[in-house]
Amino acid sequence: MSEGKPEEARLDAALARSHPDPDPPGHWLEPIYRLHANAVLRTAYRVTGSAADAEDVLQTVFVRLARRADPPELGQGAAAYLRRAATNAALDLIQSRAVRGSRPLDDAPLAATTDPGPTPERLQHARQLEDHLRAALAAMSRRHAEMFALRFIEGLDNGEIAALFDTTPGTVAVTLHRIRERLAAELAPYLGGIS
Predict the structure, then answer these.
(1) What is the count of structural domains for the chain?
(2) Contact 137, 153 (CB under 8 A)
(3) Would you say residue 111 has pLDDT above 50?
(4) pLDDT exceeds cutoff 60 at 136
């Protein structure tokens, strides 16, 4: 375990455990799980900022799929479908915490991975900004939160998002522009304060 990075170590351990013994032969979900479990886990981690929460989301996504009476037609779109499912389940988790009034999100030191020499003050500010962003995502409509997370956390382009939501890339672009304006206004008080 790397010192100072317990969340990354926990995520690495969860990734290692995400490939258990296969289900009985012929089970339709096993090959999908083997191919996409790591991506689901990473997506959930990026949205929640917590390895433990990401593991819960991984389990939730695949349990929901396993409970379906008919397997979904995933084909070539399996990766995008599962990333959306992971984003959705992760948003469920952070929104349920927002409703309960608690915010026990684990620290995800994003600044430590993007800044070669962050100061403790910058790290603290980055953690607070991440908490405020997660709270803002939890407060917005599900559709808007999903679109934002898929575009700016998962990196899907407007066309891919449009296909998932059965809309046009132009509608996605307008929606994302409005979301960014709203978030910029909501997060403005927290964007200053670091040098």
Answers:
(1) 1
(2) no
(3) no
(4) yes
Contacts of 91 (CB under 8 A, 6+ apart): 47, 137, 138, 142, 145, 146, 149
**What does 39-107 look like in DSSP terms, one character per residue?**
HHHHHHHHHH--HHHHHHHHHHHHHHHHT-SS----GGGHHHHHHHHHHHHHHHHHHHHHHHT---PPP
Residue 176 above 60 pLDDT? Answer: yes
CB 149, CB 91: distance < 8 Å: yes
Return the closest-CA partner of residue 59 out of 26, 25, 93.
93
Residue 1 belongs to a domain? no
For residue 120, being part of any structural domain is answered with yes
Domain region containing 156:
6-191
Instruction: Give the residue carrying structure tokens 């926990």.
Output: 10
Q: CA–CA separation, 93 vs 107, rounded Å?
A: 16
C-alpha span between 194 and 64 (Å, rounded): 42
- Which residue's entry shows tokens 């949205």? 47
